[in-house]
TrEMBL record:
It comes from Natronorubrum halalkaliphilum. It catalyses: (2S,6S)-2,6-diaminopimelate = meso-2,6-diaminopimelate. GO terms for biological process: lysine biosynthetic process via diaminopimelate. Substrate binds at residues 13, 66, 76-77, 185, 203-204, 214-215. The gene is dapF. Its EC number is 5.1.1.7. This is Diaminopimelate epimerase. InterPro entries: DAP_epimerase_DapF (IPR001653). Gene3D superfamilies: Diaminopimelate Epimerase, Chain A, domain 1 (3.10.310.10). Belongs to the diaminopimelate epimerase family. The active site is at residues 75, 213. PANTHER family: DIAMINOPIMELATE EPIMERASE, DIAMINOPIMELATE EPIMERASE, CHLOROPLASTIC.
Length: 276
């Protein structure tokens, strides 16, 4: 038995999208198999989307299952891909995305997709991180990081040049540090000389480096502004997969803007009821 999918990516952060109405008895097992880049289709996760067209603007209920089978409460580029998918089907330029981190508005402007990212928090209990106060430029497992939650936790280190960093060596000890009861994503960022930043991110749930991370881009931007590394708005953040823009409104809420591409369609095999 098979179910259809659509493959989208946002600045290289790629996802299989499956309509939530499709029968998938074990979403975690499917993600573990099909996100594998050697044996499966290859992706940074599977987005299961339920489209509710009766609302204005239309609503999309988004569930992201990651390559390790876990469910992530939020993904900036994933939400932008979900928005493009929904806009393609409804002919609209705006949609609401329901995530485990809250309901967010997405708009298409000049071909790019902008998604609300809520209000980042440095509150240790909400990240969560095992600390009595906010964590700024603190050594954790040998890496000096600032910690923020932008829908998911991020530990961000500013370095001279992200290309000089062995991310696969320095990130896992921080990602699995006892300081983070639910783990954390790990970002490194370096100034680009014009108020923006180059980005590399080791993602929790992917358990490796991704070509882009939207929540990570927001984490870098908000921390850079808090530490006085930039006063730009928007802040340009450049992961390996493309360019993103992070803006802030008067309430401190962030938005994430960048391109989204529909790559191709296909089908994946799932267990039939008789096989269960």
């Amino acid at each position: 038995m098979s179910v259809p999918f659509q493959k989208y990516h946002g600045t290289g952060n790629d996802f299989l999208i499956i309509h939530a109405d499709e029968y998938v008895p074990d979403r975690s097992a499917l993600a573990e198999r099909e996100c594998d880049r050697a044996e499966g289709v290859g992706a940074d996760g599977i987005l299961f989307l339920a489209l509710e067209e009766q609302f204005s603007p239309p609503r999309v209920v988004m569930t992201l299952v990651q390559p390790d089978g876990s469910t992530a409460p939020m993904c900036g580029n994933g939400a932008r891909c979900a928005a493009e998918w929904a806009m393609d089907r409804t002919g609209t330029e705006s949609v609401m995305i329901d995530t485990q981190s809250g309901t967010l508005r997405a708009d298409r402007t000049d071909g790019d997709i902008t998604i609300e990212m809520g209000s980042p928090t440095f509150d240790p209990d909400k990240i969560p991180v095992d600390a009595d106060e906010q964590v700024f430029e603190t050594a954790i497992e040998g890496l000096e990081v600032t910690v923020v939650n932008t829908g998911v936790p991020h530990a961000v280190a500013f370095v001279d040049d992200v290309e000089d960093v062995d991310l696969e060596e320095i990130a896992p000890p921080v990602r699995y540090a006892d300081d983070f009861p639910r783990g954390t994503n790990v970002c490194v960022a370096s100034p680009d000389g014009s108020g923006g930043f180059d980005q590399r991110t080791y993602e929790r749930g992917v358990e490796g480096e991704t070509d882009s991370c939207g929540t990570g881009a927001v984490a870098i931007a908000v921390i850079a502004r808090r530490l006085g590394h930039t006063d730009a708005d928007p802040v340009a953040v450049k992961p390996p997969g493309g360019d993103l823009q992070v803006s802030f409104n008067e309430r401190g809420h962030a938005t994430l803007t960048g391109p989204v591409e529909h790559e191709f369609d296909g089908e994946v095999t799932v267990e039939s009821p008789a096989e269960l």
